[in-house]
Amino acid sequence: MDEVMTVDVAMGLLERLEGYGLAVHPGRCVRVRNRHASCARCAKACTSGALALRDGQLTVDEALCVGCGTCATVCPTCAIEARHPADAELLAAAQRALREADANGKSATVTFACHRAFEEAPAACAETGVIELACLSRMDESLAMRLFADGAKCVRLLHGTCGGCARENGFASVCLVRETVGHLLSTWGLTCEYDVCQVPAEAQGRAAQGCESAMRRAAAPVSRSAARKPAHVQSDGTLPHFVPLRRHALLDALAALGEPVQPMLDTRLWGHVTIDMRKCKSCKMCAVFCPTGALQKYQDESGHGGVEHYPAECVHCGLCQDICPAGAIVSSTAVPAHALAAGETERYPMPDPAWKTGPDQILRKMTPQIHSREVQHSY
To answer: DSSP secondary-structure letter at 113?
Structure first.
């Protein structure tokens, strides 16, 4: 792609996916927030090739998008959200299935099946309450843990033959979520099951009844009267923050499930940021660009300040690490479990930088160099 990846170009690329079963929020994307961001999880996980990374640049072919929601599952900031069905709709269908299972005296199991599983094994998928998805990569950790908090003992995912399926690449994301859910269950000392298994192929055709379909056709492209503009900087000099609703839902579910029984949690979902103060230049660019506000500027009563880190809101997007000019930041996936449960924060006091941002920055820098105050603005 020959276009330079400016903010406008990056926003325009993502907006092409609007209307294809996805809701897009370009201002949340770390690549839009800063061109030095290395995140490309959506492109790596895309099952259809609609999102791709070519020569280090994000490319979009909206004609290939099938609205499966895999990109939404892996996006750390929810810059892309699945909406056919939306998270709330899918959760409501799963909770309804859980209530029906309880009412019928069945084990507290919620079952999801992919489109191909229904085609290959209709009888196995025909029991009441099985929820159909275009691809099981639509499942995310917040949905599973919410169901466990609601009393489910097992969340079962049934898939057909992945080889040759148009969404074959989605199975990598299914395994990724399964691994993360396993770590969460272990850290919280739970015996619930998150089971992923293949259904046996059957001779008969697709069953038309006995399932609740959560799959929709990709919507037609929608027209936009005006392009969205980059968000303005806030009064404290930082870009706007947004904590994904999925993360709120997941933390609420974990709180309902009790206290963690293990000290550390190592998953893809959260990050623990450490700053090497021997290298840090106190520029606070990490707080300026942090998409969720997990890194924020602070100033205490004495007037001294620095950066405060809130692990529960850190989505491990890696942007702070990518943009730190001094290479002083490391974002790790290993997070103290109690920091998530109790909402603990960490502070990094920082001295005032040798320079200050603003319209007079060049003037302040040059004055001591030329030993004169006769330098004047041209305006």
So the answer is: E
